[in-house]
Write a structure and sequence with these properties.
It contains 26 helices and 6 strands. By secondary structure, the chain is mainly α. The relative contact order is 0.11.
Amino acid sequence: MSRNLLRLFALLLLGSLAISRPLVAEEVESDSHVKMLAMAARIDALIQQRLDTENVQAAPLASDGEFIRRAYLDLVGNIPTVAQTRAYLEDNAPDKRQRLIAQLLKSPAHPTHLANTWRTLILEPTDDPLQLRNEAGMQRWLRGKFAQNLRYDRLVEEFLTATQGNNGPGYFYAAQQLKPELLAGETSRIFLGLQLECAQCHDHPFDRWKQHDFWGLAAFFAQLERPGDDNVGLARFDIVDRNQGEVTLPESEEIVPPAFPGSTANYASLGGTRRQQLAIWVVSRDNPFMPRRAVNWAWAHMMGRGIVHPADDMSPQNAPSHPELLDELTEYFIHSGFDLRLLLETIAITDTYARSSQAVADSEAPAKLFARMAVKSLTPEQLYDAMLKVGLLKGPDEALQNDGNRNQFVARMRTAGKDRTQFDTGMPQALAVMNGPPVSTATSPETSELLKALSAPFLSDQQRLNVLFLAAYSREPNQAELDRYTQFLSQVEPQQRPQALGDILWVLSNSAEFMLNH
């Protein structure tokens, strides 16, 4: 039996690996890989166990074209190029899915995408381009942390105690107007998965949280202020911690001291500022909420919905669909050293993640069973960048954060909903996609680099159509599509051929298959 198999056997029996000497770097990486494979197999087993109990048939694995497009969108926020898709489709190695996932997680586009995602999670949607520019400093800060693969507990700690303004999380505090009640509600939702704001004015009607729980948490943010005069404050988002400031229950004079939700721990014994005291508790192993919320976010990010749904409402009354899976994945996350990148990789290499999004039975299985992949709408950033990629207008890994057209497009396409499986766009968004940049630029023969390349005389119409479909859908056209568009092109005069190809690309880039992650 090989050394790796022996270690896997020990892992499955004991839940940990006993060793008698320090591990060298290669062995540490090998052990981590073995544990990742074991956890991925355990995820699939627990999901399948529930499907068997419910007598539900799982969808088959997605095609290679479906999978590469999905993995690119979920891990780097954009679609693959034609060359990247062709290389993956032609690869016959049995481990090519795992190698693709590892490659994407090492890409500089991965932390950029996570920063986009977390900015949306942390801040309320806005259609104001100025506010979008103000968010850029916090987004750069997030990207830097994700690029380092900073331990998630350290990231949370630094966020909760930050004093940086324009180049850090200060904009989040400014967006909440430094109001303790707003900061308590948002930080508990983002990092703990608790909807404590429902207990702001009275005891929660359906949960265990009392009014004192909410205001006890708010008290940790009661001693914040923005330094400098008002004019300076408008230009910067720095914050400082004072040594005075309290909160009182609404419509009373009762001062509520700081208190950790659901805990009797003595905050004063921790030392430091109140926010530092809160951060120490939030990231401690005694806090059951933070790691479970992180795991549920990661699962929702990859699968379209959380093990607890909605992903930011993890109250006892909102039970997980797979309690054992949530418990074991949380323990795995903690023992990995709060490695968020490893957590995403573990989920991504499962067969559960690799399933097709197509239903396999007349009676649709409940989404909470994860019998198939959920269909997710692209974020505004993903949609804009994918259109640029289709037209070969920008390099594949450019952040594009300072693109004025991009900011305007994102502002127009932003919606209030955070659930990507819900499609709440309307006519203004549809018109922005159909008529405005970037789709008009990406599908114009004068500006689209892809269409210019397809003008080469040695290409056949079928070859041109193959490229267009690979660019937009990461697959070649089926026979019906090929026949339809070949007939269309045969009726076009030679001088109109570039525009006709642009029209086809316009149709593809405005289709549901292009604008959805499936």
